[in-house]
Design brief:
By secondary structure, the chain is mainly alpha-helical. The chain has 5 helices and no strands. The protein has one domain.
Length: about 140
């Protein structure tokens, strides 16, 4: 093949190549943005459920009232669905303790939830993050 035969097409090569690169770049950028959006949505959903679980557990702690049982059960289910491996392990230990003794303490679980949620939200760890204090009014 003679170079003179393809020489008239040289001015088209640059724009065609630029168009192909632009389309490929757009496609790759779109795919990456979709993946990022999905990851962000999953993270938001997980964080929101764990915040709700934390609030339900905290609300039910140190309370003799039975009205919080459904909240407690819901929080336990959410942690088993969305929680980290260590959070799920603490939930299982809590369930076993309640089955054995009829009650359980879950300050360690609340502390871990608080610590990991603060980390996920980009908040600094508090100096007393492992000393959660729960306050309840009494009817005295």
């Amino acid at each position: 093949m003679d170079i003179a035969a393809i020489q008239p097409y040289f001015p088209l090569v640059g724009p065609i190549l630029a168009a192909v690169v632009a389309v490929c770049g757009w496609f790759i950028a779109h795919r990456l943005n979709v993946k990022k959006d999905i990851a962000n949505k999953k993270r938001e959903l997980r964080i929101q459920h764990l915040i709700d679980a934390y609030r339900k557990l905290e609300k039910s702690s140190h309370s003799a009232s039975t009205e919080y049982r459904k909240d407690f059960e819901s929080a336990i289910a959410d942690i088993q669905l969305f929680g980290s491996g260590r959070q799920i392990q603490l939930v299982h230990e809590l369930i076993e303790q309640i089955q054995r003794e009829g009650f359980g303490t879950y300050n360690q679980l609340l502390e871990l939830l608080r610590k990991e949620l603060r980390h996920e939200l980009g908040m600094n760890a508090s100096n007393d993050a492992e000393n959660i204090k729960i306050f309840r009014f009494t009817n005295k």
